[in-house]
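Page 47, continued from p. 46.
Same chain as before, 124 aa.
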Amino acid sequence: MDVEGKFDLLLKTIAENEKKRMAAEDRTRADLLDLKSAVEGRLPVVEKKVEDLNSALGVLSTKVEQLESNLPRANHREKDLTWALEKEETVATTTNFNTPTVLHGTRESNLVTATPFGCDSIAL
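Result:
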């Protein structure tokens, strides 16, 4: 009877464990169904965001293409502007009008005059 009691206890434990396993599977199934419904509910929102990103990417792509097409023209204009500035600098350095230059709000240090900015004395 001792063996028979142990056997009955073992069968009872197996049955309880089977019930627990079935309950756990049911909870898992319910959790997975909840997760599935949540994901399916969010799917249209995510798809819309992907479409919005795709359209934004298309707009940005066209802007980049426009900028890239304008780049050679801008480089050409920049070279012309650089050449013009260099020409102005050479003209400015070759013409000397004996006027002091003002650098950062002060006059040139090598200019020695009694009056500020190289002006003649003014009679009042």
